[in-house]
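Minutes, project check-in
Item: structure for the 202-residue chain
Input as provided by the requester:
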Amino acid sequence: MIKSLLKFIIHFIFLLGYPGIFFLMLLESACIPIPSEIILPFSGYLASIGKLSIVGVIATAILGDCAGAVLIYLIARKRGMAFFERYGKYVFISKNHLRLAERFFQKYGKWAVCLGRMLSVVRTFIALPAGMTQVDFLSFCGLSFLGSVVWCSALSCAGFLLGKNWILLQPYFRAAEFPILIGIAAGIGIWLWRGKKLAVKE
């Protein structure tokens, strides 16, 4: 099944180019488990051989990624968890996926949107708890955009640099997530600490 999915993604992007990237990234962010770990590096590889532009690949991926996230955010805000628990099974959304995103969101608050967009699996479902807890729409869009920029740029550029060896990236994606998350969390902590310090001085 994984090999079939890999072939489908490769052929879809190869045939459609930018629209294919946009559509697949939209689906992935709309809780359809299509791995961007394949979409983005392969698109970066196509840019490395001149079939696409790396800037175009990244921009298109970010647009699709954010569009899918906003769609799910709006549905979750209006319908709630019950809707996805009832109908999610038809698009391979399990209750485990929903609970994972919910726990992650509870742990990190609205910053989970930004952090979650940079992590496999979590990124696909993080818009659900954000919508259900009524996170401010503009805050959601901004945080989702930041996370998407990092994720889409990193994976697309990695595929571009590796060229035909882009497939070698897959085993390392999830192994790299934990240190990345720690670094991001530390950066946010320092930013908040400095903000409080400046507020005290004022």
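Outcome recorded: Residues 2-169 form one domain.
No further action items on this chain.
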